[in-house]
Structure prediction request, 628 residues.
Amino acid sequence: MERMKRMSKRSTFLLALLMFVFAAWPAGLIRAEEKTTSTVQWDSQNPTTVNLGGSPAQLKVWSVTQTGKTDVTERAEWISGDSSILKVEKGLITPVSKGQIKIVATYDQKTVSTTITVKSPYSKLQFNPTGPLNLTIGGESKQLTAQGVLSGGGTENVSGVEWTSTNEAVATVENGLVRPLAKGVTYIKATKDGLNAQLIVYVRSSSQALVLSASGSKSVYLGSSPIQVTATDVNLTGGKTDVTNTAEWTSSNSLVATVEQGKITPMVVGNSTITASYHGLSKTLKINVLPTVEKLVSSKASLTLETGSKTSLPSISAYLVNGAKKAVQSDVKWSLSSESAVKIANGKLVAVNPGSATLTATVGALKLDIPVTVQYKVLKLTASEKKYVLVAGQETSIPTVKAHMAGGGVLDVTNQVSWVATTAAVTVGNGKVKAVSGGNSGIKAMYMNKYVKVPVIVEGAISTLTPSFSKAEMNLKGSKSIKVVGNYTDGKKVTLSSKVKWTTSNASVVVVKGSSIKAVGIGTATITGTYQDKSFNVEIKVTPKLLKLVLSNKNLKLPKGSSQVLSVSAVYDSGATANVTNSAVWTSSKPSIVQVTAGQVKALDSGSSSIKVVYGGKKVTTSAKVLK
Prediction:
């Protein structure tokens, strides 16, 4: 019983305690809630403008209470007014298209909003290369690149561009690759994010002419072999290509003559026009098919010529099977049994060497032989070398000797002449001339009662050659003299500058004449001087001449604490320019006011200073004023 009473008292105590807690705690809690308030705020660093094509940007929101603030970006509910312009997820915004859109963030039933502008990073679109574009039918396609001009300056290649051609029959475009199809004009357009660029394209024929090996009209005789006509395409730069097998060939009367890849076959007596077509151009040849030739006759039964002379080919007439006689000069195919004595050039017989040959005229299936005899008359002999300078014991090859003939012909008679030495200082024979002892001498070549002399000077041996310099740097179009001293084996010295034989490894950079070196192009070259059997090299580097330095901006005015970047360009006499900002030396007359390093200008204190830039012996200055 006592135990039950104690339990009852304990229960009463616990119940009273619980009632006290429940009575006191809610009231305190309510008072605490009444005192605790919060707001939702945007982060001050949140962007209000984003560029298309840029990386996603992060927005932040804060829950602000009396005791501090908490980043609730991840817990807030985010809504984009139009996800086709801007997508948002947990504050991460991704630009989709140009426009302005409201972004709303809600946390703890409190809402904040802001307006985000999505814009293109480019002020306009342009092409690389720029127009107009000139293409040719059948020629190479041209790759265009769309570039965006950045609002802050500079350009960058743009992807995701929509390409169109206003006339796809003339040229098509795919991913910027322009393919020419037909003659005409079209415009290539590029569109990206509301920006457009347009370029005109001219497509022309790749051919300026089609040339046939036979022109006008041509007679063909029944019973003769088919005749082959070739077609040559002349492109816009004058280059020529044989298109005989690729051109289209037609005959206006295939009953009279057929044609296949320029091969014309006579079928019956009559007339036909052969047409060759290629790349929109065409050329015609009239074919006259005549009866079979029965006999050929020549205006000259034989010919006798002097070497070097020229004469017209004889006139040829044909007797046909129907009894008619016809002049067939334009239809004759000429040939020679040998071209060692006489040749055919530009419709003429040219006598080359003494001798004989048979001239053959072919018309249809008939041939006519005409004997030709060539006799020579030498006017003078000339040698390829004006003189020799040799050292005692040295030998060299004899010069080439040419005979100048009556009528203007020139023959190489090196192997037919006889040689003699004019003194005992030299010997000549077996194709060589050899110096025996010092002094002046010569060799003489004789042929057909004519002769030519070549002086031979025998001098002492050179042991070394010494140029006045072994390397040099020159400006474009500049000249520099070089002195070469030769040392004889006996110790004597001689200046050989004008006697040295010069060669250059790159004539587009350096040429040498006499003792003068001339810089004709940018680059490097090695010139080699040779005299007797000695030689040396001189390295030449040709660079453009620096004319001046140009600053990107002058007369600066800067607020205190601000900075600005300058650049400096070097202008050369070749017309080239180069950015030398990092290579130039930058100085400030008052570094306590204006500090400058590699083009980076910092305004430290109010006042004025002068900025000087030095590079390659040139300088340029500008003023800089720091405002308060």
Notes: Helices lie at 2-35.
